Amino acid sequence: MAKHSPHILVVDSNTATLKYIEFTLTGIGYKSTLARNGLEAIEKTKNQHFDLIISDLYLPLMSGNDLVRQIRQTPEYKLTPFIFLSDNKEEETWIQNLNDGADDFITKPFKQEVFISKIKAHIKKTRLRKEIIDYSRKNNLNFDKGNIIYCTPKDNKFKLSLQYIKTPVKIIQSDKDLFSYLKKENVWRIIIDDNATWAISILDKISKTTEQLIPIDILISDSKDTDKINYLLTNHIDSFLYKQLDERLIIHQINSSVQQELNLKNKYFNALNTAAKQSPVRFENQYNEDIQDFNIQVIHQAYNKLAGGDFYETYDVDNQKKIIVIGDVMGKKWNAWFFVPAYIAYIRSTINFFMNREEFDFIKSPGKFLEIINQSIFKDLKISEVFTTLSIISVCSQTSQISIASAGALQPVFYNAKENKLAQLNIVGTLLGVIPDAHYLSLIQDFNQGDKLLLYTDGYIEAVNDRTGNMIGDDVFLDSIRHVISKNSILLTDIETQLIHTLNISKFDDDRTLFLVQKN
């Protein structure tokens, strides 16, 4: 399938700036849509799909911060890159922009080559993310949980006996519910009643949002309505289901497609099971070690006990220093598993090479290590096409300090025992392999008795609360662990037990890793 040309929404009240950016984007083969204020921008997102949004910070009618906050409330745009333009160079302003949901910023006046470089980097990142998400959706091994979305009008008069379909069917009657459901559920197919005008009017947006990897079927009322059929055929429709047919035949068509999906996933599952059993990559489910008055723990669980995207390794520098790496190859199941050994090979060789070299200090500068490994990965044409997050944690009992650097990982949590305060540390960085010259900061944290540092992968925050049906998320995760983490000395199993019971988690659908370092 040919990739579509990136479509970018540009928001600015200055006509000259709009035209200049439009000219620049056209020059690199990108399509652009222009808006002169936030309200106009939001209106355009309702019926069109955009791969990236560029907005001036200071807009009429609605500020840029208000715009990005509202954009992030729309399910289909939660992960779309959002870049601010502004001549404001104050650090506090940019921090506020990032906290409100922006991904990056470009200061005015900007150099065209810098602008193009940043846009291309974010387009590459979002394209890879979509490929990973859609590929994992298509090949999700948990095949007994596939769903069909059935889009209907609110006064639906055409009824199907859904109880005879082999997989769960979710009836959807609005675009907001549709995109929200697509984000959190494993969807195999979308069926749209041709009288559901709300869905028919955004067919192009639906197909581009799903990257055309989720088949779309249309329930047609009149098989002789050639005008409607011709319009639908221009929007990547996979098949038509005719209402005039006997209901049993319609149900049979749907079930046949479901059975094909089951057969495909069963094939992948069996192949992965065989490969995983032969894999040399193994990680202990639990790790617990003391370095003088520091205690280090890890809980690691691969999905369905198969080797997966999460990985960790520990390295001894001497009897007072230790290095821990925690990573997550984005994507699920066999695709992520396949690349884990390659990443570990890069990490091992780089650490072993620099471990005892005087010009390099892992303990003080883990960010430098990320820069080196990032350059190696970027040069590898195959591995650079897959996202990975990586955190490097250096523990030094001699100085009672921990240093940490991050490449795209979730922000770590630090508990200050003296102040009885739990907060996320402001340490972030670009995913590995996206930008060749990415710079990674190193954060050095002093540790006192009772202090704790906790890292976790998205397998925890993307778990679902069985009672509410919602994903856990960072805020709920932090609230749930506050009581446990404040205790003098804890076990990671205490935190996981707390999460499972208080948040009603019956199972995890992804790899998960918890890392804890505490000073006793």
UniProtKB/TrEMBL annotation:
InterPro entries: Bact_response_regulator (IPR050595), CheY-like_superfamily (IPR011006), PPM-type-like_dom_sf (IPR036457), PPM-type_phosphatase-like_dom (IPR001932), Sig_transdc_resp-reg_receiver (IPR001789). Pfam families: Response_reg (PF00072), SpoIIE (PF07228). Keywords: Phosphoprotein. Residues 7-123 form the Response regulatory domain. GO terms for biological process: phosphorelay signal transduction system. The keyword Transmembrane does not apply. The modification 4-aspartylphosphate is found at D56. PANTHER family: RESPONSE REGULATORY DOMAIN-CONTAINING PROTEIN (PTHR44591:SF3), STRESS RESPONSE REGULATOR PROTEIN 1 (PTHR44591). This is Fused response regulator/phosphatase. The lineage of its organism: Bacteria, Pseudomonadati, Bacteroidota, Bacteroidia, Marinilabiliales.
